[in-house]
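Subject: for your reference before the review

Hello V.,

The reviewers asked for a structural picture of the protein, and I figured it would be easier to keep everything in one thread rather than splitting it across files. Below is the amino acid sequence we used in the manuscript, unchanged from the supplementary table.
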Amino acid sequence: MEFDVITIFPQFFDSLFSFGILKRAQERGIIKINTHDLRNYTRDKRKSVDDRPYGGGGGMVFRPTPLARAIESIKNEDLKSVVILTTPQGEVFSDRIAKEVSEFEQIIIICGRYEGIDERIREKYVDREISIGDYVLSGGEYAASVVIDAISRFVTGVLGNKYSAYHDSFNESLLEHPQYTRPYVFRGKRAPRVLLSGNHKAIKKWKRLESLKRTLSRKPYLIDRSNLTFEEIKQLEMLIDKAPPRTKVYVALVHYPVYNKTFKKITTAFTNLDVHDMSRVCKTYGVKGFYLVQPVYEQQKLVEAVLNHWIKGPGSSFNPTRTDALRLVSIKSSIEEAIDQIEKQEGLKPKLVVTDARHRNSMIGYQELREKIQKGTEPYLILFGTGWGIVKEVLESADYVLKPIVGYTNYNHLPVRGAAAIVLDRLLSI
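And here is what came back from the structure prediction:
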């Protein structure tokens, strides 16, 4: 395999690939890493490679002519080649992408810098745009070195053990199992006995289970990409049952204060379907409590009658799983009552998150809120409104207002139980 790197700082790579696995792979002729100084493809005395962007703005842009000359000169028509641009705008690099790209014989990498490259180069020459993360680097050389290293591991002969790349973390989208070596006992802690048993089947099973455990606890979203057997799915279900709750999330369905169609503050009526469906959603995603905020006494008694039927009455034996979900439900006269109860249970006042179908300033996105919930120790109370949404005063008092759920149409009239399912899946699913 041949790597050809187009850069204005070829010396950047001098030491990076002069030791270790990649040095040995080059010495054995398995891979070849060439650097090409973009300035050598200019024709002016100053060897200028960049210019001011049309339309104004800060920074400089790589000019198209030197880049085109470089690519056309370097590209070997006899090889299966691909042209990659390193850019923050590209698809996020992964083990899957590294494996895909390793099938090519020549990989040309353009190291982006400044404000980027002329768009016409993207359109005519670039096959794939790659980012190594959602952050900005001084230049694409850093990203190029990561890409070269990761791809090389899938080239036959680069690693001493031909299976190593396929046993590393992220293979099949699971994190690697824990590793142990001599001594057997280190400062009072023993290595797992099964690893010394000589029973290869038991060892393989242990490693796979530990990979599942580690992925579930550290990066549960990776499980969705993995191809699990039915037995492994059952193991995963047992792990989930044994795992302590990862989050302290509560949900409230607010019947007051909310708006009607003319934006008058009103109280809405309880609906049987919302309570049943939302409680089941809350139970599925590990929500610790589901509050119905309803100040009208007659409505409270109606809800109590429904809950009693399913929790204490005939419904408990008819549908036990629904009973389990409805046990999460508590009736409160106000949002403040729900907040007070959570504070008593958790010892901390919950962060208040309000959902709304309308756009407004300073809203929080799903990934950012998910990270706060997963990493923090604070409880969260997520409010879902009925009617035409929760009133402005509550939105303004909240810690966070979650961005609306948006599809590829302008239609935006989800039922509250549908919105709750989508929101909780985005924030709490594995």
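For the response letter, the relevant points are probably these. The mean pLDDT is 94. Residues 372 and 378 are 9 Å apart (CA to CA).

Happy to draft the paragraph if you're swamped.

O.
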